[in-house]
Amino acid sequence: MPDETGRDRALVTAVIDGGDEAAFRELYRRHARALRAFALSWLDTDRDRIDDVLQETWFRAVRQLPSFQWRSSLRTWLVSIAVNCCREVARRHQLQLVRDPSDATPSGGDVTADVRIDLESAMSRLASGYREILLLHDVHGLTHDEIAGLLGIEVGTSKSQLSRARAALRKLLGPTYTAPNDEDSAHA
Q1: How far apart are CA 11 and CA 62, in angstroms?
Q2: DSSP class per residue in 30-74
Q3: Do 18 and 79 share a domain, yes or no?
Q4: Which of 49, 67, 90, 155 has the fewest beta carbons closer than 10 A?
Q5: Parent domain of 53
Q6: pTM for this one?
Q7: Are residue 164 and residue 139 in the same domain, yes or no?
Q8: Residues 64 and 132 in one domain
Q9: pLDDT in tens, 137-166
Q10: Last residue in a domain, options 93, 113, 144
Q11: pLDDT digits (tens, 9 = 90+) for 55-96
Q12: Cβ count near 11 (within 10 Å)
């Protein structure tokens, strides 16, 4: 959305040029929910650690705002910082990078909860590279170009990893699971 990017640019300029606190608060409101959802989807940890990841993400972002080149959207750039923060916290505290739902209890045979738990369980058993690509592309909606830039890989690698990740996920979930068509989103 060009108007969204334009608004982000104006807010970033206000923060950089004048330290405009109101502009920062609006940037925070615009992107905090997505960053929290991202961190929660990547880390199996308590609320305090998630808050620490988010605080560190915003701290680094503010410091690096003057060097941001707008080669991607602001949100994609913020997610790239959050990826690094999540990895550091996971390493430091020996945490899993994907929530293990084995302790979740579905209520009263709710099919949606059962399917979600099966999917999360299968995701937790995927190789970390596959999980990363699936989360970035299918959950957080990043394009293959954005993923390639974020992870320092080629676009073709992102596409092939996504295809392999989906195949591995289908195998883990069994024959009754139907996934999005790999051909449709491999070109996104």
Answers
A1: 12
A2: HHHHHHHHHHHHH--S-HHHHHHHHHHHHHHHHHHGGG---SS-H
A3: yes
A4: 67
A5: 2-93
A6: 0.59
A7: yes
A8: no
A9: 887 788 898 888 888 889 999 999 999 988
A10: 93
A11: 999 999 999 999 998 877 898 889 889 988 988 888 887 776
A12: 20
Based on the fold, state whether residues 175 and 155 are members of the same structural domain.
Answer: yes
- C-alpha 156, offset from chain centre: 20
Distance separating alpha carbons of residues 99 and 89, to the nearest angstrom: 14
Share of the chain above pLDDT 70, in %: 76
Tell me the CATH number at 77. 1.10.1740.10
The beta-carbon contacts of 43-46 under 8 Å, at least 24 apart in sequence, are: 43/86, 43/89, 43/90, 43/95, 43/96, 43/97, 43/99, 44/95, 44/96, 44/97, 44/98, 44/99, 44/100, 45/89, 45/93, 45/95
Q: How many Å apart are CA 172 and CA 145, to the nearest integer?
A: 28
- Which two structure tokens, joined as six digits, stand for 151? 């992870």
**Alpha helices (H) in 65-154, listed in sequence order:** 74-93, 111-125, 128-134, 144-151
Tally of domains within the chain: 2
